[in-house]
User: Which sequence fits this backbone?
């Protein structure tokens, strides 16, 4: 690399060595980079960057950068401010913990501020680096465990080698107790997603009060911050709940202990037949005739409740997808079976679905849903899962099509919201609408979701949506992105715009496939992907460990974290994450998945309020309450774990299981 006159060559050399040690890919980029700008001294004697007569900082720039960092130390506009968790979005155990710490705190005369009163936080994000003048001040101010620095212009990172000392920042990663990410990207959406990914990896439960600062004015960084803040709520989603894990282990146990099923396996071989992936969004009604016209030439994948819409219009799907566990999806599919019958439709479902579902299909096929305790217990291996198969069944349908080898996909009814608040699903779906109550229809369901957000629509304008649908959209985009450019996905739905798809009106579809080519590729999918279950698989996997004992041993380790944290919130959350989230040898344990959702949600609750205690000098009193109540939920989880495994065969449905859990007596 070239070196400007007057710079500290020893600092550059030390910085490059640090990058080679802890960020080798960036080191290679920096070593070969030829900057378009120059590192110069400005009128203040400070380093600045000059490009075609324009300066990054200008006179007083360093002082302004450092001053901004100081001035925004406690400013809410420089923080991610999450809403407190409530009983609506936590499980029974966490809700009990939350109610008890707040009740005891308020009875003791404690109050809670709207915003924390100290600048310390778990995460620090710098949108832009510049020459890094603000970084030392932010590190001192925030004392973060997690640091994410994103810079759109590699020139600035290159010039910073001569200005700031990178070694103390980069060596944090070597300590195993810190998380440091340095990103170079000039795409706002990519920046926002990668920052969210860093926060989720480092600690998804400590997003609240995250400190962020924009290093310099930039349209790219402005757009990235807007998108990051808008979707910050997605970072902590999908951690799981204790009682959901109970049900999914129970359902998997019941589904797999008998050999009447086949097992899904991913295939590396591409197949040209087009696939129609059908959700039950409202725009499906406009496209149903096109789907009918091509049903013999395209593979039809029905996602969840789309089955009734298709069959009511004379279209028998080739595959019926199901992701969600529980009795409600079972009843919906059972109503369709009673009305139309599934015939030769092949079920592809998560191993966690209600065990009664498979009885409706001649050929039930299970894939093993990852990131769950039931996956770790029962899965025969990674080829038998689906990447990005959630959070909704539409994700499952897309993931299955890609995993089977299909490369030309069309999305119908994948609205992920609605253009009109008056209709949230197809008129032929099992969902009730204001103008169509479907009274008396078997399997009919109310739609309780509120579309409280808007985002860019597929064919222009805006669509109404909400957090789970935005999560679904991001997961769809990631799944498709892994296969591009080999895969082409056309979005015919009049809902949200989905990255990595191409908007296409269904009237523009012109398929060249034939019934013969469809039959040929379905036969290949059957041979490669829908395999007989292996004899003895269930017994071998289930008998590998004393599952309740492994879970209780992990609960003891969590108690150790609480005992050793010295009432330091960052320290507690770092070590709690290491115990519950960190993967040992790349493989999470069943025990981690079984208990971590509830414990992490409880930790998120305590972190929110522990930061906001007023008067601050009584924070230790609140910590005493926290320690006692957190210890108590560890006791509850241990007792319920033993009870669950002793009664795993007793319950017919999740509703029976949850009824017993709801009646649980926690005391004594």
Assistant:
């Amino acid at each position: 690399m070239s070196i400007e006159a007057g710079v500290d060559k020893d600092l550059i050399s030390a910085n490059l060595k640090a990058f080679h040690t802890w960020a080798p890919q960036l080191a290679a980029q920096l070593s070969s980079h030829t900057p378009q700008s120059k590192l110069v001294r400005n009128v203040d004697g400070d380093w600045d960057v000059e490009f075609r007569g324009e300066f990054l900082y200008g006179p007083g720039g360093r002082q302004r950068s450092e001053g901004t960092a100081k001035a925004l130390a406690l400013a809410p506009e420089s923080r991610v401010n999450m809403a407190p968790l409530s009983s609506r979005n936590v499980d029974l155990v966490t809700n009990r913990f939350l109610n008890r710490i707040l009740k005891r705190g308020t009875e003791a005369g404690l109050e809670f501020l709207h915003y924390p009163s100290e600048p310390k936080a778990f995460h620090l994000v710098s949108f832009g680096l510049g020459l890094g003048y603000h970084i030392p001040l932010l590190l001192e101010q925030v004392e973060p465990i997690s640091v994410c620095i994103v810079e759109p212009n590699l020139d600035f990172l290159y010039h910073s080698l001569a200005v700031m000392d990178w070694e103390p920042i980069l060596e944090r990663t070597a300590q195993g107790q810190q998380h440091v990410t340095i990103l170079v990207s000039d795409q706002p959406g990519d920046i926002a997603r990668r920052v969210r990914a860093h926060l989720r990896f480092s600690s998804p439960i400590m997003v609240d009060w995250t400190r962020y600062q924009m290093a310099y004015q930039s349209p790219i960084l402005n757009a990235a911050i807007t998108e990051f803040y808008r979707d910050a709520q997605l970072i902590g989603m999908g951690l799981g709940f204790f009682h959901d894990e109970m049900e999914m282990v129970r359902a998997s146990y019941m589904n797999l202990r008998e050999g009447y099923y086949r097992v899904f396996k991913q295939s590396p071989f591409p197949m040209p037949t087009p696939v129609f992936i059908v959700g039950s969004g409202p725009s499906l009604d406009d496209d149903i005739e096109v789907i009918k016209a091509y049903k013999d030439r395209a593979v039809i994948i029905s996602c969840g409740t789309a089955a009734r819409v298709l069959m009511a219009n004379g279209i028998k799907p080739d595959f019926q997808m199901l992701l969600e566990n529980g009795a409600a999806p079972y009843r919906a599919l059972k109503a369709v079976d009673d009305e139309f019958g599934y015939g030769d439709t092949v079920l592809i479902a998560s191993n966690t679905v209600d065990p009664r579902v498979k009885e409706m299909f001649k050929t039930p096929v299970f894939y093993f849903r990852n990131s769950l305790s039931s996956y770790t217990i029962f899965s025969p291996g990674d080829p038998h899962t689906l990447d990005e198969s959630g959070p909704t069944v539409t994700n499952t349908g897309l993931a299955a099509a890609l995993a089977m080898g299909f490369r030309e996909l069309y999305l119908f009814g994948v609205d992920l919201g609605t253009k009109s608040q008056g209709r949230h699903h197809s008129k032929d779906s099992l969902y009730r609408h204001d103008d169509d109550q479907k009274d008396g229809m078997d399997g009919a369901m109310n739609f309780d979701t509120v579309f409280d957000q808007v985002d860019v629509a597929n064919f222009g304008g805006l669509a109404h949506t909400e957090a789970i649908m935005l999560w679904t959209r991001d997961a769809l985009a990631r799944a498709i992105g892994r296969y591009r450019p080999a895969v082409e996905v056309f979005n015919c739905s009049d809902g949200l715009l989905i990255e990595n798809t191409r908007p296409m009106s269904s009237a523009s579809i012109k398929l060249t496939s034939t019934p013969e080519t469809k039959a040929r590729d379905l036969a290949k999918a059957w041979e490669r992907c829908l395999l007989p279950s292996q004899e003895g698989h269930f017994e071998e996997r289930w008998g590998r460990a004393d599952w309740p004992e492994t879970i209780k041993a992990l609960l003891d380790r969590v108690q150790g974290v609480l005992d050793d944290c010295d009432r330091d919130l960052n320290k507690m959350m770092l070590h709690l994450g290491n115990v519950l989230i960190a993967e040992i040898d790349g493989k999470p344990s069943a025990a981690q998945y079984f208990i971590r959702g509830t414990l992490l949600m409880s930790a998120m609750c305590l972190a929110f309020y522990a930061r906001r205690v007023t008067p601050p000098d009584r924070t230790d009193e609140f910590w005493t309450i926290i320690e006692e109540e957190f210890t108590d939920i560890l006791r509850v989880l241990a007792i319920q774990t033993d009870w669950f495994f002793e009664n795993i065969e007793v319950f017919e449905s999740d509703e029976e299981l949850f009824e017993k859990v709801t009646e649980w007596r926690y005391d004594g």
About this structure: The chain has three domains: 9-71+123-202+205-234, 261-532, 543-662. The first strand starts at residue 38 and ends at 41.
